[in-house]
Amino acid sequence: MERTLAIIKPDAVRAKNAGKIIDRIEQEGFSIVGMRKVQLSTQQAEDFYAVHKGKPFLPELVAFMTAGPVIVMALEKPNAIQAWRDLMGPTNPANAGANTLRKLYGTDIGSNATHGSDAPATAAQEITFFFPELK
Ligand code: CMP
Q: Does the global pTM surpass 0.85?
């Protein structure tokens, strides 16, 4: 079993696509081991995306991620990190395959509906960031 951190971003929450995304998560065989709706502060968004410090898109990313509530989830499944990345599709919805979450619900590289951890070390770190009780 493996765990990953998933976020339904403000664009998808605002568009009321969260229920459809959560339904799809369950259909695809993930177990939701933690879930919370949170309004991120600027500080929290900057801390969460610290790996992107210095990148030109960081200010826009932080503004976007704090524009409204997000739904954060810890998901569990064999090979969960890659399985969730496959279900989301690539970062830019323009490159995403049919039926991926970013193709269905994303708009562009910034407003791309969902986030997922990219490796075991970041998954552990990101899960602890939102769900310290799941350690
Ligand atoms: P996410 O998986 O949440 O990780 C970082 C986010 O930065 C990414 O999804 C994108 O939504 C956002 N982003 C905005 N611009 C860019 C860019 N030029 N390259 C990569 N990510 C970007």
A: yes
